[in-house]
Each structure stands twice: as C-alpha cells, then as structure tokens.
Specification:
It holds the Pfam family PPR_2. The chain is mainly α and about 625 residues long. It is about 70% helix and about 0% strand. The chain contains 29 helices and no strands.
C-alpha cells in the first residue's frame, strides 16, 4: 500500500508555476506581496554642502543648452567670426544665468585671453568663475600659474602650486604646472635655489615623478649662471632617478651639451651629440628637443653641424604624423647664423617658414629685429616692422622697444622716441622694464629732462618703477648737480614699498648734500618720509573703517528687506489659511449650494482667479 496521497491539479499548479494561482484572491494577495517586496524606502539625498569639493563635469554629460553655449564660445574664439572680447563678456554674464558655462568653456576663454596677453581680463574672469562655483581643472590651474608668471609674480605662483600639492587636494598638480613655475623662477628671475627646492618638493609629493623637462629647465638655468658642473650633476641625478639607464627623453641633452661646452669639454659634447642622435639611438626627439641641440651647436661655433641637424629635422617633418620643426626651430637657426655674423643667411632662413606652412609670429619677428638692431642694421629691422604691419601680425611692446633701442644705437634719438610713443596710439601698455630702457637711453644721451618726463609718465599710468629706474635717475641728477630732484627721487624710493634704498645710493645722496652744505636737508628728507608714511597709514585705516561701516550698513539693509519679505509672505499665508478654514466651517454648517457657489467665487476672487462660469482662462 502506497503512503503517498494523490496530488490534485489545484495543488500541483502553484508548485510548478509560482506565478499561477488557484483563485483570484490568492493572486491579488501575491501581487500585493510582490509590490511590498519591490518597494524599498530610500532616504532623501541631503543637499550638497557649500564647502564640499566639486569636480569638473565632463563635456558629454552637459545639457544640450550648455553644450551649445560651449560650441558658440569656441566659434567666437577661432574662425572667421573670432571675437575674443565678445566671448569673454558672454562667458562672464553666463556665470550667473540658467545656462552656466562649464569648466572647459571657462578654460578655453582663459587660454585665449592669456595668448592675447590680456591679463587684467584674465584675472577678472578667473575670479568671477571661482565666485560662481565653477570647479577648476588641472588646465585651469596651469593657465592661472602661467598668468602669474606673465605678471612676474613668482612668489604667488609658488604659493598657489604648493596649495595644489597639499595632501588630499581635489586637483593635484600636473607636470606642466611644475614646469611653468620652474621656468618662471629660473628664466625670468634667476632664483635657482628656489627652483631646486621646488624640484625636491615635486619628487617628495608623489604626484609627479622625475620630469626631464623640469631638469632641463634647471640645467639651462645653471648654464646661464656659468655653472656647468651643477648642470652635469643634475643630469646624473636624473639618470639615477630613472634607474641608472640613459634618459630616453631628448629634452635634457641640449642643456647637457651646453654645460660641456661651457666647461671646455667639446669632445664630450660632440660625443654626446653623436651618441643620442645616432642611427641606433633609442632617445626620442621632438621639435623642442631638437631645438635645444641646434641651439647648443649654433651658439658654440658648430654652425655646420647645426645646419645638418636642421636639414635632418626638415626631412623628418611630416605633419600631422611627425612634428619635427616649429617656429622656434627657425628662431634658433636665426640665432646660429647671427652668432656667426651671417645676417643675410639669417634673413633667408627666416623667410623659409612659409615653405613649411608656418606663419611667423611676433616672437619670431622680434628675435630677428633684436639681432639686426644690435648690429646697427636698422634699415633691415624697419623693413621687418613694415612687413609685420602689412601681414596683420600685431607688433607688441617688445617690438617697439627693440626698434627704439636700435635707433638709439645709431644715434637716431627722435626716431627712437617716436617708436616708443607709438604704443599709446596702439593701446599698448609698456611695463616698468620698457620705461627703464627709454629712461636709461635718454640719460645716456644727457637728456635728463626728457628722461624725467617719461619717469613721471610711468608713475602717472600706474606702473611701479623698477629700482633700476630710480637709481639711474638718482645718479644722473647727482652728477648734474640737481640735488633737489635727486632728493625727490630718493623720497620716491623710500615711499615705494617695493623698492629698497640701498646703502650705495644713500651714501651717494648724503655725500652730495653734505658737500653742498645741506646737512639739514638730509634730516628733513627722512622726517618728511616718516610723516607721509604715517599719514598714508592713517588714511588707509580710515578708508578701511569706512568700507567696513558701509559693508555693515549694506548687510543690515539686506537683512531688513529679507525680514520684511518673510513677514509679508507669512501674513499672506495666514490670510489664505484663514479664508480656507472659514469656507470649510460654513460648508459644515449646512450652507446651500447657491451660497456655497457665492462663497467659492468670493474666495477665488481673493486669490485673483475666476470660476469656470466666469470665462476663466
């Protein structure tokens, strides 16, 4: 006898088919159970903290309107309808609109402003972007560091880079960021010790490894400081950092060859050249690396080797697959020919740029104009200047200063002054270095009054004079016996926070005043300086207090306006709630339909609405 019970179809169907049910009630219960299991209560997402780190949004994730705005800005930055001021203005206005520009849009406009040397507009847009909470990218930080370097603010650039290198930084520094700051410290300011310290910080940070470009900049700096042994030592350090193997980036070998030439080791330099540029060499050379080697050969009497290497570069040049030649390649060849005194060949190689579809830029023109001016070939330099104006290559401040110096070299003083004055008509802004050159040139021609005029013009335009300009004028006034003017210049140095009154200048002025029997003027000068400094500090404190009072008054006014708005909104809300409750109480007390309709009409009219029977919208 079997102990198993017969299985009915009613019991078999749910066992074989879990979604099949015997009756409608069980099916409904199962559906309710599935819904209950499917629903998962998720807690609400908290609002992001204002101090939370925000990262840049990738371009593919942007809304269509923001992507269209990005493309519109790119069209304004390049092409036939390029309009940089309009692009910067649109981006700045859009920062506080519903269609905010992305980080990459801001970076594109900032890069264009930096290329155009519009640094004031650059810093203004960068500040607005940060205030609008547009997250910066690594490229944005590099552009900001480059702008600080262009403004000759190495300490600010160094401080900003160290902030990026802190542990936990959302956007760690890139190798390019270190390259920009190291180049600023070495090439522009000669601060080799700070640059070496920054290199050590780069290696200790863990963000960037031993970068050959950074080492190349440092080696070039020590070569410029006539310390070839230190440059060779840096190369050995880089070689040890990469495991003792030869460095495969060719960027370092140009500076290494210059160091060898500087130390009188020409054989080692040429051996290095043949080794790294031989057929079996594994060292990778790009246009920048080739340029350094060509420059090392051309500046050390190896013009034939430089020409051969340049021809090799032209043969390897196959854009876009292989870029072996750029504008700087032609500049270093111009330098090589001019170093050998072959200025016609330098001009000829300059005009070969068009054969390789390269358009000379302002730096290329300025480089050749500098060489021609130093060798008193002012006619050829002026021909190049005319070509710049005809080709649409805008001459910058350096161009006019170079032409001014070239005219001074051949005693064409009035023409030199006219080139400097042309910058006002072209809306160019000469810096302190440019003003120092015209002041120094006029002083050398014994035109002290004109030099003083340009010095006063520089201060009137808000350009802080360099200490070199102060000292040049002070020495000239003392030599001319104009001690009153010399005392005014010394007073300007003492009142200028960026200038230092050296002991040499102090002794020169005081000795001249004592020799003229004006010892009392020395004491009076220092007393006047102390008094004016105290007055300036008091005025600054007063202006600060006034600004703080105005800011407090503005904050109180805004708070009062906000409180008034909140109070009005609360009163309106209370009135609406009271009207609804009154209507509800009257309805509960048994008001007739007609009365209810009249009450509804009165309530709706209070809210500015109409019922369906009154031609409602």
């Amino acid at each position: 006898m079997s102990l198993s019970k017969p299985i009915s179809a009613r019991r078999l169907v749910p066992a074989l088919f879990p979604l099949a049910h015997a009756d409608a009630a069980s099916a409904a219960a199962a559906r309710r159970e599935r819904r209950r299991d499917t629903f998962v209560a998720t807690p609400p997402v908290p609002a992001p903290s204002p101090s939370a780190v925000r990262l840049a949004e990738p371009l593919p994730t942007l809304a269509p309107s923001r992507l269209a705005f990005h493309n519109r800005i790119l069209a304004l930055l390049s092409g036939p309808q390029a309009d940089l001021p309009e692009a910067a203005l649109l981006t700045r206005h859009a920062l506080h609109s519903n269609c905010r520009p992305s980080s990459f849009t801001c970076a594109a406009v900032l890069a264009a402003l930096l290329r155009a040397r519009r640094l004031d507009d650059f810093f203004a847009l960068h500040r607005f972007a940060l205030q609008a909470a547009v997250p910066p990218t690594a490229a944005t930080h590099v552009l900001y560091l480059s702008a600080l370097a262009a403004r000759r603010l190495p300490d600010d650039a160094l401080h900003h880079l160290r902030l990026l290198a802190r542990p936990g930084s959302p956007v760690p520094p890139s190798p390019t960021a270190y390259r920009v700051v190291v180049e600023c410290l070495v090439a522009d300011h000669g601060r080799l010790a700070d640059a070496v310290e920054l290199k050590d910080e780069m290696l200790d940070s863990g963000f960037v490894g031993p970068d050959p470009k950074v080492y190349s900049l440092l080696m070039a700096g020590f070569v410029g400081a006539e310390d070839g042994a230190k440059a060779v030592e840096l190369y050995q350090e880089l070689k040890d950092k990469v495991g003792g193997e030869p460095v495969l980036d060719g960027i370092v070998y140009g500076s290494l060859m210059k160091a060898y030439f500087l130390m009188g080791m020409e054989e080692e330099a040429m051996e290095c050249y043949k080794e790294v540029l031989g057929v079996e060499s594994e060292v990778k050379f790009r246009a920048e690396s080739y340029n350094e080697v060509v420059d090392a050969l051309g500046q050390n009497g190896r013009l034939e080797d430089a020409v051969k290497l340049f021809d090799r570069m032209l043969g390897e040049h196959d854009p876009p697959l292989r870029i072996a030649v750029d504008l700087r390649s032609f500049r270093v060849m111009v330098d090589a020919y001019c170093a050998a005194g072959r200025f016609e060949d330098a001009t000829a190689v300059f005009r070969r740029m068009g054969e390789w579809k390269l358009v000379p830029d302002v730096a290329s023109y300025n480089n050749l104009i500098r060489h021609l001016g130093l060798n008193k070939l002012i006619g050829e330099a002026e021909v190049l200047y005319s070509e710049m104006c005809e080709c649409g290559v805008g001459a910058d401040e350096e161009t006019h200063v170079l032409l001014m110096e070239a005219c001074f070299n051949v005693d064409r003083i009035d023409d030199g002054i006219s080139y400097f004055d042309k910058m006002d008509g072209l809306e160019l802004r000469p810096d302190a270095a440019a003003y120092h050159k015209i002041v120094d040139g006029l002083v050398s021609f014994s035109m002290l009054d004109r030099a003083q005029e340009y010095f006063d013009q520089m201060k009137g335009k808000g350009v802080s004079p360099s200490i070199s300009s102060y000292e040049t004028l002070l020495k000239a006034h003392v030599a001319a016996g104009q001690l009153d003017n010399a005392a005014k210049v010394a007073k300007g140095i003492l009142l200028d926070e960026k200038a230092v009154f050296s002991d040499e200048m102090r002794e020169l002025l005081e000795g001249a005043l004592r020799g003229d029997g004006r010892e009392d003027d020395i004491t009076k000068l220092y007393e006047d300086v102390e008094r004016e400094k105290a007055e300036a500090e008091a005025q600054a404190a007063e202006e600060k207090a006034r600004a703080e009072a105005l800011a407090k008054e503005e904050r109180d006014r805004r708070r009062a306006e906000a409180a008034a708005k909140d109070e009005a909104a609360a009163k309106a809300s209370a009135a609406a709630i009271e009207a609804i409750l009154t209507h509800k109480r009257k309805m509960e007390n048994g008001v007739s339909p007609s009365d209810a309709n009249s009450l509804d009409g009165g309530f709706l009219s209070k809210l500015g609405l109409k019922s369906a029977g009154e031609d409602a919208l």
